[in-house]
Inverse folding.
């Protein structure tokens, strides 16, 4: 389990995503494929960037399709009336998936120096704390219409 | 504490104490502060959610299908942005131009949707002064719209600079910084779309009103 987590989150790559460590000056690094299985790797490279092994247009297209599909799923579950109390948590999970997709791949945090991830994550945590504090503050104040 | 060296591509690189580009570090720090900025406004929206004493209420006025299209447009502009940077690094001028201006175009389309939405709301009697929903909605989406407008202007300048040869693959960080800002605007909208439009779409008058 810890290896799986490390593979997904590690900046050194060579794991499940197999995205290599890069310097900040190389923002579109070599991409050896998301999966280490040779034949899948070959297919991935053909799809993603014509065998030249970069995180190029193909890779970004896959991310964009993923984001579009998640948006469609959001709209679909929005119309499902039987979800009841599950609707909002599901919407927030899907929203978080899109958020991570854009930040990790389009903003290159997945490829870039880990300090940028630390800075942004720290601010995200602070932001979420501000968010929760405000909600709690007003909740305790018993604000009514 | 930085010195300048000239590499074999005749471009300047700064060696910094962190080993990172100062400008990129600054941009990420700014984006982090903007997270807290928007976090406060989104929290304010939620605090006052469902507490408007008079209409129009969200369930009477929000148009989810139309906003979904504008959300899709903004997502695709992020995709165009990442392609523009990719092609700039590959020195492919025509494609870089095409994708930079695509981002600008999609950004303008998004703003067009917002202008139409705001106008529709005003016609139906919802303004920032109408009720708590109006105040928090217009402030949050308006601030986001302001960010998008700044991004459009910034990217239009980048497009022009690239056309004139001032933006090249050896100084692509200029476009990368603009791109980071643009993607940030996109992720903020991802949250706003969920919180305001999807989660709050069924909100009506509070109990007892």
């Amino acid at each position: 389990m810890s290896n799986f987590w490390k593979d997904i989150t590690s900046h050194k790559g060579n794991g499940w995503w197999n995205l290599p460590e890069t310097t900040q000056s190389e923002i579109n690094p070599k991409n050896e494929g998301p999966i280490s299985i040779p034949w899948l790797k070959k297919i991935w490279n053909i799809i993603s960037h014509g065998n030249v092994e970069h995180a190029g247009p193909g890779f970004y297209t896959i991310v964009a399709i993923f984001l579009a599909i998640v948006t469609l799923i959001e709209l679909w579950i929005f119309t499902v009336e039987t979800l009841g109390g599950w609707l909002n948590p599901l919407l927030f999970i899907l929203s978080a998936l899109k958020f991570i997709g854009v930040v990790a791949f389009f903003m290159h945090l997945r490829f870039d120096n880990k300090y940028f991830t630390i800075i942004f994550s720290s601010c995200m945590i602070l932001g979420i704390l501000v968010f929760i504090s405000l909600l709690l503050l007003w909740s305790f104040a018993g604000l009514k219409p | 504490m930085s010195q300048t060296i000239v590499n074999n591509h005749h471009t300047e690189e700064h060696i910094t104490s962190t080993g990172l580009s100062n400008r990129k570090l600054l941009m990420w720090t700014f984006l982090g502060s903007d997270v807290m900025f928007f976090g406060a406004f989104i929290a304010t929206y939620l605090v006052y959610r469902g507490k408007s004493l008079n209409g129009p209420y969200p369930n009477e006025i929000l148009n989810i299908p139309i906003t979904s299209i504008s959300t899709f447009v903004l997502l695709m502009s992020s995709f165009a942005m990442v392609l523009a940077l990719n092609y700039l690094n590959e020195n492919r001028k025509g494609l870089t131009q095409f994708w930079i201006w695509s981002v600008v175009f999609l950004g303008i389309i998004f703003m067009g949707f917002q202008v139409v939405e705001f106008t529709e709301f005003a016609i139906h009697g919802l303004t920032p002064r109408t009720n708590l929903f109006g105040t928090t909605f217009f402030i949050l989406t308006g601030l986001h719209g302001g960010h998008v407008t700044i991004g459009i202007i910034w990217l239009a300048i980048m497009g022009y600079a690239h056309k004139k040869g001032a933006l090249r693959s050896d100084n692509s960080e200029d476009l990368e910084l603009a791109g980071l800002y643009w993607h940030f605007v996109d992720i903020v909208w991802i949250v706003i779309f969920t919180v305001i439009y999807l989660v709050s779409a069924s909100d009506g008058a509070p109990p007892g009103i």
Q: What stands out?
A: Chain B touches chain A through 58 residues (CB under 8 Å). Confidence is low (pLDDT under 50) at residues 1-12 of chain B. The two ends of chain B are 63 Å apart (CA to CA). Helices of chain B lie at 22-47, 58-61, 64-89, 93-123, 132-163, 173-199.
